[in-house]
């Protein structure tokens, strides 16, 4: 296991702190109020730009207020005001050039957190740590949608079917509503996949606890009206829309429509138990590319007899996915239209009841 980064020194900055210009546009993690320790943190994920650790948060007695001592034009640093959970997820740069990617992600998160009830749709962001450029989030211990799919693949086929019937309606509603929220904020996620969706249990107080799904990882995201040509991160092939593999730049850039496709494949992933292209393409990247360009993930998924049975047993869920999996992006539903369609559906769950 990689060695965790050094725990930041309280009250100090690293050699490459976030610039004051960046601070003015970014939520900063208020380490004077609560901090974290990485020495005993657990690595929970890693990628091209980052390593993510689950760490305990450490409450710190707040210093005396200095608000009265400030005189114009002095302005206090901007900090995130929401409460911090007892466990935090700390996203640490994995390479020197990750700093700009982190600052970009922090700006996207800053924009999203200007909306009310944002944490119903994305994992809460506590701010960018100015000492080391780490991004600090709410710690979510329920794992990812990818983890859930893996667990479902090691139980009996009957148990798996019953679990999928029980879980799919709620997951679909959470994720489609979340995508509608992102698009209403003019944000293209650009990398929707099961690994970028975290799950946790929510006690509503009115019924049994429910599983909630929320989005993470906005390193590839951008505002619709901004130039995204210089972004370094990209999507994952299995979840890319057919047009994204075209040569023409005006077609292959991420859009709201490609986000919808990515979520359609993600929901299909739950039913199938993995990538819909796996049976036909295996690890052959050329075949995978051509399969994606064909725009027929359901056809490729059905090449596996076991998967074909799963699809036939969940035809209502497949119909939900099909709305997003139109090859022609002009015919593909919008997130808003998809959410409106879903409100009219009643899915039968594993206990025979209907899920509104």
UniProtKB/TrEMBL annotation:
Residues 1-23, 60-84 are annotated as: Disordered. Coiled coil: none annotated. Keywords: Autophagy, Kinase, Transferase. Its main location: membrane. GO terms for molecular function: ATP binding; protein serine/threonine kinase activity. It is a peripheral membrane protein. Residues 13-23 have a biased composition (Polar residues). It is found in: Preautophagosomal structure membrane. GO terms for biological process: autophagy; regulation of autophagy. It comes from the Eukaryota. Residues 38-348 form the Protein kinase domain. Signal peptide: none annotated. This is Autophagy-related protein 1. It comes from Neohortaea acidophila.
């Amino acid at each position: 296991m990689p060695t965790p980064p050094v725990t930041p020194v309280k009250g100090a900055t690293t050699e490459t702190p976030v610039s004051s210009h960046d601070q003015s546009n970014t939520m900063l993690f208020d380490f004077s109020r609560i901090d974290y320790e990485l020495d005993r943190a657990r690595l929970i994920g890693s990628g091209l730009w980052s390593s993510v650790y689950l760490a305990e948060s450490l409450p710190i007695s707040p210093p005396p207020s200095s608000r009265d001592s400030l005189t114009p034009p002095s302005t206090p640093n901007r900090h995130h005001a929401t409460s911090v959970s007892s466990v935090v997820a700390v996203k640490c740069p994995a390479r020197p050039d990750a700093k700009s990617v982190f600052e970009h992600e922090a700006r996207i998160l800053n924009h999203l957190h200007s909306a009310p009830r944002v944490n119903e749709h994305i994992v809460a962001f506590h701010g960018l740590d100015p000492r080391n450029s780490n991004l600090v989030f709410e710690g979510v211990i329920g794992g990812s949608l990818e983890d859930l799919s893996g667990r479902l693949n090691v139980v009996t086929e009957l148990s798996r079917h019953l679990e999928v019937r029980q879980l799919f309606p709620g997951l679909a509603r959470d994720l489609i509503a979340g995508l509608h929220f992102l698009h209403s904020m003019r944000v293209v996620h650009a990398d929707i996949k099961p690994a970028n969706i975290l799950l946790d249990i929510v006690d509503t107080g009115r019924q049994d606890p429910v599983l909630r799904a929320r989005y993470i990882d906005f390193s590839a995201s951008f505002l619709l009206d901004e130039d995204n040509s210089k972004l370094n991160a990209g999507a994952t092939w299995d979840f890319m829309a057919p047009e994204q593999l075209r040569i023409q730049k005006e077609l292959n850039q991420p859009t709201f429509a490609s986000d919808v496709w990515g979520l359609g494949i993600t929901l299909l992933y739950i039913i199938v138990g993995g990538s819909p292209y796996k049976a036909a393409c295996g690890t052959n990247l050329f075949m995978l590319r051509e399969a994606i360009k064909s725009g027929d993930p359901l056809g490729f998924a059905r090449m596996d007899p076991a998967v074909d049975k799963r699809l036939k047993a969940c035809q209502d869920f497949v119909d939900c996915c099909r709305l997003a999996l139109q090859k022609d992006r002009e015919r593909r539903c919008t997130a808003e239209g998809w959410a409106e369609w879903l409100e009219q559906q009643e899915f039968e769950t594993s206990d025979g009841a209907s899920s509104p």
